[in-house]
Structure formats: C-alpha cells, structure tokens
Amino acid sequence: MNRTKKITKKHMSKVKKANAKLNTANKPKYVSKAERERLATLAAQEGASIVVE
Hints:
The protein has two helices and no strands. It is mainly α.
C-alpha cells in the first residue's frame, strides 16, 4: 500500500467508529422470546383481573 492509501484507510476507520457511536439508539432493545411470552401472560392476567372487578 502506498502512504496516501494507508492514511486514508486509518482516517476512514476512525470516521466509521465515530459514526457507529453516534447511531446506537436506532434499534429497539432486544426482548427475548421467553420475555415476550412472560409479558404477554402478565398483560393477559391484568386484563382478566380488570374484567373481574
């Protein structure tokens, strides 16, 4: 590799890392399948208790 290419490669890697740090909150937090199931059962129980009252 020549000198210019090495400098450009280092610079671009730093830019990519900086952009990655800035764009962390784009995706929603992962919720596992078991956790989704647990939340669904809790919601169903709360719905049932509201209907009973």
